[in-house]
Design brief:
Strand order of the largest sheet: 10-9-6-11-12-13
Number of domains: 3
Largest sheet: 6 strands, parallel
Strand content: 15-25%
Structural class: alpha/beta
Radius of gyration: 20 Å
CATH architecture of the largest domain: 3-Layer(aba) Sandwich
Length: about 325
Amino acid sequence: MARTTEAGEVRIDKDPHAFHVLGYTTEDDDFQILLEGSSLGTDGARRLRGRTPLEDAREAAAQNGPTPEGPWQVPGLRTVVVDVHDDGFARDLIRRARHVIFDFDGPLCMLFASTPSGQVTRRLVDWLSEIGLSPSQDLATGSPYSLLRAVAVQYPGSDLVTGLEERLTNEELIAVASAWPTEFADPLIRTWNAMGARLAISTGVSAVAAQRYLDGRDLTGTFSPHLTGRTADDLDLDLNPELARLESAMSLMDAHPDHTLVISSSPAAAAAAQQAGVAFFGYGRSPQLEKELLVAGAPCTTPSLELVLRTLRDFA
């Protein structure tokens, strides 16, 4: 629901707090807007999709990032009142979903909650150094997944890639013991399962580690056997791993694209969902991650799975 107002503020789901409106409208009032503020108690940005071309708003957001003075300055700024809980586009994504594919790290849990991923990267770099390889500074201080991918691109199909992937898997298995469950994830999963949806996991994390986490949360039955995770083989240079895993998960469930929904924190997963022709709902637990998801093409994002759970319960 959207309407113009002269009050100069945005109210979300009857929330009394004011929000900045980052709008992009057309002459006939079709709209594409970005909101920055605190929704459901979490700072972030959310895109609600109208019929304005997605590329226009994405380009505007990419070119006009957040400034110290305030939010993204998007051409055609318009003040509107939006009730997120009643937003037809987001609700329709949830209503139509008969097959729901979750990413693991993010929507289900924070895997490296107790052991910073940077420490994992350093241990992998130390192992590479022992065998005579010195990754660039960017890779040595970045994500362990970026490091693994870079090595796989440079040495496709090698024992080196297999060894590095095995060491990352061991790190993930250790991290599972102290992973933090994402708030509202467990009840969302159980509710969707109870309503008859078929659930799957498609993740860049090792399937062994994801399975161990599910076992510990008593969630195995809600997903089994629809779990596709990382292997050394799917890191081949000529393969799109995210798309391959997504298509594998869909195949396991015999899922039709029109009734499939992907929930992920990964911009790469957003791109893969577009390629596969399936709906995507971004989970961004930080403002920066929400921005990255929006720029990657996510039609809508949320900083909390509570919104998805509340909407789903409306259809129960």
